[in-house]
Amino acid sequence: MNIIQKIENEHLRADHPRFRAGDTVKVHTRIIEGEKERIQVFQGVVLRLKKGTTDSTFIVRKVSDGVGVERIFPLHAPTIDRIEVISEGVVRQSRIYYLRSLRGKAARIKTKNAW
Question: What architecture does CATH give domain 1-103?
Answer without folding.
Answer: Roll (2.30)
